[in-house]
Amino acid sequence: MNDLIVLPVALPLLGAAVCILVGKSRTAQRFVSITTLVVVAAIAVWMVVDVDANGTLVTQAGGWPAPVGITLVADRFAAMMLAVSAIVLLAVLVYAVGQREAEGNHVGFHPVYLVLAAGVASSFLTGDLFNLFVSFEVMLTASYVLITLGGSKAQVRAGMTYVVISLLASTLFLAALAITYMATGTVNMADLSGRIAELPEGLRSALGLLLIVVFGIKAALFPLYFWLPDSYPTAPSPVTAVFAGLLTKVGVYAIIRSQTLLIPAADRAGTVLLVVAALTMLVGVFGAISQNDVKRVLSFHIVSQIGYMIMGLGLFTVAGLAGALLYIIHHIIVKTTLFLTSGLIEHAGGTGRLARIGGIARRLPVLAALFVIPALSLAGIPPFSGFVAKLALVSAGLDTGEYAVVAISLLVSLLTLFSMTKIWAGAFWGESHGDNGKELIVEGRLGTPRVMTLATASLAVLSIAIALASGPLYRFSERAADDLLHPARYVMEVLGR
Amino acid sequence: MSLLLAFCTAALFSFGTYLVLQRRLSRIVIGVGLLGHAANLMLLLSAGERGRPVFIGSDGDFTDPLPQALALTAIVITFGVTVFLLALAYRSWVVSHDDEVEDDVEDRLIASRLAADGATAEADPTGETTGSTGHVGEVPS
Hints:
The complex is a heterodimer. By secondary structure, chain A is an all-alpha fold. Helices cover about 75% and strands about 0% of the residues of chain A.
């Protein structure tokens, strides 16, 4: 049973190879990639259930025992992240098939998308720091191709910034790996967990901070977020949606994993993380307010939301980490939905610029509903999933006595609501018109292309389901957070000692 | 020897950083390459003592193979991505006939609007211009 955890990584890679072989037929490509992701999602969901009931799954690649071989580990945190990402990847793929823009124009879309899926899965499952680097590279290289697939001027310009900044982060990661290996003689995360504590203090904090910087670039933490709102909006909507939902969250996952597992409890930079979290929230939301394009507003919101997750981590309590985990689950789904909706808005209006479109609510009520649900959820209005996640974070913050960061997070929620109303007022209210004075494009009964709308709607429904199932989900998150704060269990599972 | 390599790494890191901060894409690509070399050199340095045989010698003492394997993986990855970056640079040349990394147009637009707002506010010392507020939703199209 343990060997099954290889499948979420291996299957998409295999699928990518098949997709290249059947490149002549778009239908065959679609069949292969959708089937692959359905299977991966099913395995991932089964893993969540199994891990929660029977404990962590561990497998050693090639049968080499840890710490020599490459270890794949699925604990509660990793399994949950994997399940949510697999579902989101599947929904976005269906949307892309419905949209045809990026998917239909390029034979490389399906293979590259599956490689991205493999990279994301491998980042979550790996138990080896160097393998994490390789997984990041697999995921990022796929994302470089996806973001520049159109080859337009704006995409090349934005892609350039994105590639260079990611390469820079990778180089720093390599340097951190070299230091780690030099000092400890291992790159297995479970093995490192004990050994880092034995290092001299200066080296320990240098390593800890270097890792925060490396993963902070990927997660777009303040002050390392500049590349994100610049590059994301230029890609086609499905690509932006999956980037927004998943890529930065892989960075957050790596921060949480490294801070809880690798860094000894005495060295945890809780205050630094809380300050960074507060600044990330504030800067992101102010950036969002000043923008005038749907996708750019949403891109700045990614930055702002990352702050909440880091806030949960910075508290270093079970409640805080549980809140962060719940927030990540909610955020991946809601953010992806919003970007998919922004694609639908662009489809209907011809542009995402708020000044040039209007009145969508009157002509396309379904689209308006699809925007309102995730938008209110993002702002944290009850009864949506954002409310539950924010409530968990705020109460954890109050328990710890970190009143300043709690106050800032509540203020940022208000500002989030404000910028969402800005999109609403700009695009949905007023006289209905599209770009250049044209009519809004209304198709069929739903108003927007059916497949795209259904894919978006399924994610919106999922976000409501999260709110409804928040009790069990929160208890699951608490168990996962408890595991994270007791790294000895992880080490025990992997090394058997 | 180790000291020499340490200086070498430091030099590569600093030259690479300088080049990456330039605006010309060709320089950035070279800078990224240098940074990659620096990181790989660091990985190699992490093998510990130098001068040992690669294979098991008569006394059974040999050099740590893992850093070399890691460096090899890293070299392949850096190489692949650098090639992609070059392809991107070529594409940039094709579409814009320039290899300078440009500013974000939208950012400039917002900045210029703020500057324009500032100018009207300065021109009107009473500060009662309506132009400096209520601009949030509007865009000069």
